[in-house]
UniProtKB/TrEMBL annotation, chain A:
GO terms, molecular function: GTPase activator activity; small GTPase binding
InterPro entries membership: Rab-GAP-TBC_dom (IPR000195), Rab-GAP_TBC_sf (IPR035969), Rab_GAP_TBC_domain (IPR050302)
SMART domains with a match to the protein in the record: TBC
GO annotation, cellular component aspect: plasma membrane
Residue ranges constituting the Rab-GAP TBC domain according to the UniProt record: 37-225
This protein's name: TBC1 domain family, member 10b
TrEMBL record, chain B:
A biological process from GO: protein transport
A Pfam family this chain is assigned to: Ras
Protein name: Ras-related protein Rab-15
Chief location: membrane
This protein's encoding gene: LOC110521104
Entry function: The small GTPases Rab are key regulators of intracellular membrane trafficking, from the formation of transport vesicles to their fusion with membranes. Rabs cycle between an inactive GDP-bound form and an active GTP-bound form that is able to recruit to membranes different sets of downstream effectors directly responsible for vesicle formation, movement, tethering and fusion. RAB15 may act in concert with RAB3A in regulating aspects of synaptic vesicle membrane flow within the nerve terminal.
């Protein structure tokens, strides 16, 4: 992207930030700008405004520290501790055992279990919180996580995991309409949606797509919600299993699962993905 | 393309979060150990072909998320398995205590003739050991299972334990296997079997050598 275009976009976003309440009314315009990609220098702030987590943060001063001071349920803390070094282990922020990234991750995840003791901790929350921490301080990331768990993907992380299983079924029936070829292939090899979409959806593709795509998907997700997750999933299946040639490469349950669990980065291009998702 | 094999079956790795299920699997199928890896969310699987008593055995090993709430998902796959690894971490007393719960879930959701084996992983971390070898042995005996202490990190007892479970599954399904041998008498039949590979993933395949 040209420097002047980037600069212009930043200015537009800064103007939106300054008049956020007014801009909130122009849903369509904001949506369009999010689809173009939020300038990386302003992404953290935009995510917090779009998700309303900024409002939660401002209306709950001191709450995060208060949650941090609580002891927490050892049942959750035990699992959280085991997961700290298993998120983005090659990202410089999370690579070091006991480093700042891992410490902050612990603070955020633990605070959530104290905030919602009946929900506790779900392992898929860790990569989501980690992505947030790459962009913002722990307290901000915490409120953003709260919004994702409660407003964007309600029930996804709850005991029983019913919401994700239900969405898996819905996703599969949408696939039938959107790409019958992929649908028939998955059906033929008895590959239930839950086998490939659990990680895609629960981690909002943060473990699935090349990083530049992850950010673009999250930009749209914060603006438009869970429907983006469905659409990205459908686009991926269409790209992986949507033609005779592609199906020929994955003749078997194992081959298909391998392809869906390790999507070749060169097969997803940021601009094309976003373009497809819009349709 | 897929290699030729005589039989295909499924094994399942179960156990608490962080006991090393994914590492055991990586070591066995790819002979790799990654100290840095990510937690398993949902279900994953890998394949490997072994030769046991002259039979080419293709095994599909399912790796599962250890956290309790994922069990609503993973339980659905118990019934598709012929063999189960119950894995604990020798440096975690808690993971060992939970084996009983895992075993009772297997009893409830898995097929009756399921073969089980007990694995105490991370045997290289002797200085942090919380579960004595004798305790593992005793538990395995009580449940009528074989027992191995393993280390994915140092590649200790990995092939041994996977092969043992595969042998047990073979033995338990001996009758079907003899049927298979009787049916596979020449190359043509083998090729036909191979062609069926994709489709044989279902119940209809039982007499063709797939017990899934």
């Amino acid at each position: 992207m040209k420097v002047d275009v980037a600069r212009q976009r930043e200015l537009k976003w800064l103007d939106m930030f300054n008049n956020w309440d007014k801009w909130c009314m122009c849903v369509f315009q904001v949506k369009l700008r999010c689809r173009k990609g939020i300038p990386s220098s302003l992404r953290a702030k935009a995510w917090q405004l779009l998700s309303n987590s900024k409002e939660l943060l401002d209306s709950n001063p001191g709450k995060f520290e208060e949650l941090e001071r609580e002891q927490g349920d050892p049942k959750w803390l035990d699992i959280i501790e085991k997961d700290l070094h298993r998120q983005f282990p090659f990202h410089e922020m999370f690579a070091a055992r006991g480093g700042h990234g891992q410490q902050d991750l612990y603070r955020v995840l633990k605070a959530y279990t104290v905030y919602r003791p009946e929900e506790g901790y779900c392992q898929a929350q860790a990569p989501v919180a980690a992505v947030l921490l790459m962009h913002m301080p722990a307290e901000h990331a915490f409120w953003c996580l709260v919004q994702i768990c409660e407003t964007y993907l309600p029930g996804y992380y709850s005991a029983g995991l019913e919401a994700i299983q239900l969405d898996g079924e819905i996703f599969f029936s949408l696939l039938r309409r959107v790409c019958p070829m992929a649908y028939r292939h998955l059906k033929k090899f008895k590959i239930d949606p839950i086998l490939y979409m659990t990680e895609w959806f629960m981690c909002v593709f943060s473990r699935t797509l090349p990083w530049s795509c992850v950010l673009r998907v999250w930009d749209m997700f914060f603006c438009e919600g869970v429907k983006i997750v469905f659409r990205v999933g459908l686009v991926l299946l269409k790209q992986m299993l949507g033609s005779v040639d592609k199906l020929r490469e994955v003749q078997g349950m194992y081959e298909t699962m391998e392809r869906l669990r390790n999507i070749p980065p060169e097969s997803v291009r940021e601009d094309l993905l976003v373009q497809e998702v819009r349709l | 393309m897929a290699k030729q094999y005589d039989v295909l079956f499924r094994l399942l790795l179960l156990g608490d979060s962080g006991v090393g299920k994914t590492c055991l699997l990586c070591r066995f199928t790819d002979n790799e150990f990654h100290p840095s890896h990510i937690s398993t969310i949902g279900v994953d699987f890998k394949m490997k072909t072994l030769e046991i008593d002259g039979i080419k055995v293709r095994i599909q090993i399912w790796d599962t998320a250890g956290q309790e709430r994922y069990q609503t998902i993973t339980k659905q796959y118990y019934r598709r398995a012929q063999g189960i690894f119950l894995v604990y971490d020798i440096t975690s007393e808690r993971s060992f205590q939970h084996i009983m719960k895992w075993a009772s879930d297997v009893d409830e959701y898995a097929p009756d003739n399921i073969q089980r084996i007990l694995i105490g992983n991370k045997s290289d971390e002797e200085e942090k050991r919380q579960v004595a070898t004798g305790q593992g042995n005793k538990l395995a005996k009580d449940y009528g299972m074989d027992f191995f202490e393993t280390s994915a990190s140092t590649n200790y007892n990995i092939t041994e334990s996977f092969t043992r479970l595969a042998e047990q599954v073979l033995a338990a399904n001996k009758k079907d296997l003899d049927l298979l041998r009787a049916s596979v008498t020449d190359e043509l039949n083998l090729a036909a079997l191979e062609e069926e590979e994709g489709i044989t993933d279902g119940a209809a395949a039982s007499q063709k050598g797939c017990w899934c």
